[in-house]
Design brief:
The protein is built from three helices and five strands. The protein is α+β, with helices and mostly antiparallel strands and about 110 residues long. The protein has one domain (about 5-100). It has a five-stranded antiparallel β-sheet with strand order 1-2-3-4-5, covered by helices on one side. It is elongated, with a radius of gyration of 16 Å.
Length: about 110
């Protein structure tokens, strides 16, 4: 088994084998120092499943960053309260929790 690493929509995804299957890792070059990866989830039966999990989190994180920028603009122009901002800013993370693969244990 070998390490798989590839770019995906501005992110770097890495899949590594371990004793329990495969682990998905994710890094965003502009946000991580020295291409530092964080663990997305562990315990996948296949490298493909691990890669899909990392791709899903990259997609959700990209959407979250875009939405957060719009929400900041709305809050700064007094069209959104701090409480509304907080609720909306974290709501996209529910997609990741809902869609994550069942066999993986997600690192939060």
């Amino acid at each position: 088994m070998e390490i798989i690493q590839f770019p995906y929509r501005g992110w770097i995804l890495k899949v590594t084998p371990d004793s329990d299957g495969y682990t998905a890792h994710l890094s965003h070059p502009r946000q991580q120092a020295d291409n530092e990866f964080f663990v997305v989830a562990t315990g996948f039966d296949s490298a493909c499943d691990a890669a899909k999990a990392a791709m899903l989190l990259a997609d959700v994180s990209t959407a979250e960053l875009a939405i957060r920028e719009v929400l900041n603009d709305m809050m700064n122009s007094d069209r959104l309260s701090q409480k509304e901002f907080n609720h909306l800013a974290v709501s996209i993370r529910g997609v990741w929790r809902k869609e994550k693969p069942i066999r993986a244990s997600v690192e939060s």
